[in-house]
Amino acid sequence: MKRFKIRFLPIDIVYTAEEGENLLDFAMSAGININASCGGFGTCGRCRLKLIEGNIEYRGQRESSGSETDKKEDIILACQSYIKGDAIIEIPIESQIDKEALREKIKTKVLSARYDILSLNTIKPNPIVFKKLINIKLATCEGMDDLSSVIGAIKKEIHKKDIKVRLHALQTLPSTIRDANGVITVTLFDTGHYWELIKIESGDTTKRQYAIALDLGTTTICGRLIDITEKEKDGPRILEELSDYNAQISYGDDVITRIMHTKKKGGLKRLHDAVVKTTNSIMEELIGASGIKKEDIMFIVAAGNTTMTHLFLGVEPTYIMIEPYTPCFLSPPVVRAYDIGINLSCETPIFSFPCVSSYVGGDIVSGIVGSGLNKKDGVNLFIDIGTNGEIVLTGPDWMLCASCSAGPAFEGGGIKCGMRAAKGAIEQIRIDPVTFEPTVLTIGHIKPAGICGSGLIDGIAEMFLSGIILQNGKINRDLGSKRIRQTEGVYEYVICYGKDTLTGKDIVITESDLDNLMRAKAAMFAGCKVLVDVSGIGLDDIDKIIIAGGFGHFIDPFKAQIIGLFPELPVEKFSFIGNASLHGATLCALSKTYAQEAQRVAQMMTNIELSNNKAFMDEFIAAMFLPHTNERLFPNVIKKIKNSIGDKSV
After folding, report:
1. Distance between CA atoms of 307 and 255, rounded to whole angstroms?
2. Which of 16, 359, 585, 591 could potentially form a cystine with 403 if both were Cys, beta carbons 3.0 to 4.6 Å apart?
3. Going edge to edge, which strands form the sheet with 48-58?
């Protein structure tokens, strides 16, 4: 097989590729993340690359990669390109994924969420995997064995359950106990039915006990390194925290696209390898930054949606998307790090949260535990906004949940100038209601490169408030503003002209963008309304609305009400808790009490299937206006709109 050198700019790194490799697959395997939303089908046009020179076979239709200018400049789609020789390839700014901006946003905003979540330092550690210092007497006569001595010493100390021994621990036992002169530290795993002896160390290592909590998001993966020892003084439980984009995003923005990719030859392995690669990278950085030893990581707790949990464990997810939507499992088994490619000690246990249904996963169960909603009085609404939005309505002794396929609009997908939350993404927009001139704020305070989800919500709310768009989501043709124009038969509003942008191209919001966002917000609101109706309460009976997820934290609740994404309730009822899924995983790592509670929460949830629910479809259609066709649901929003632009436009 011939091999060729591929140089990527502007990072200016050279990699060696085999002849015939798909360029997108090769870039991903080399650790170069490139935006791609359609899973490599060539339909989204996001993985645009510039071929500076070299031999690349392009099998896609040129018109799918962009305009006439793109064709002249040798713009290709990575997913439709195959390596035939040495090449130099430039990654345009709009195709790059900026993980540093993601991390900066998490550090500066999400961790300062104004919600009184449970302090980790108030929890007495009682982890499911723990260390115990043991003194044993070595055999002094024939007929005694080392294993019986160790198990006898353990039972003498803790008087508990049957103990089973893993082979790896058995193989290291003879030399370890003699090197330690009988003073050893054993690592035990409480399975609930018996204990497993999974590790034996010389001397006292009980001060070195750490766990990793993971939130396996569709777009991002977040990790925490946690100290699970008993502390004499208050000290940080969370030693390090880190997030990175899920490498699977180059195979599709949403879980359905990824499930479809698994049906390609080698597709399941590619997706499994991608999420494991991202996880390993995060863990290596967490461990390196803290200065601890890798062997002191005792276990991992992972929370993800049902599809992500399947892919993380390397399990086929095909039937999740086929009626009657049957996952392989809802309560995933405990696995060993070695079995799925995680770079820790081979026997390190990995616990995954239980799921509720095909589309309400362990991340939502973890989020409920992390937010404490399972123990709160009153009626509360939990909303996790993302590509697949999940909603949980909780009462004193009941929980209803549902999943709404909102699509990728909230992540910038399916939007003409949409992008993820990276440097240059417009995250806030203000529009003068007289001149219709916009003011924008970008992540990193640099020239704008596109619009992220929170910026899109902000922008559309401002356009509605200023009369640029009408209730039906169409742009007002009668305003006479130069920023309102028609391009290729589609009306659009110009947020920034090319001379002021990072890409040199105009940044616009089109009527197609409006339609995509209205569908996404209609799905979320309709899901909320159906759960409320099923419960027999009214929207006004909701005591608190908790918005979870990294993206949700950047939404202005007032602007979200303007477009009809959130119910019209007093703003003080809204709380933003950031990554509740990661916090729930952290709690479960610290104490098996929370792990047991997660099991109870999953069993307690009643899933309301919306895919073929007539009430949901009726509510969805009703919500396809701004803010809603039923003005009585949004009286204050309607009043504000009328005061802003007059009765005619409303």
Report:
1. 7
2. 359
3. 13-18, 3-9, 81-90, 48-58, 75-77
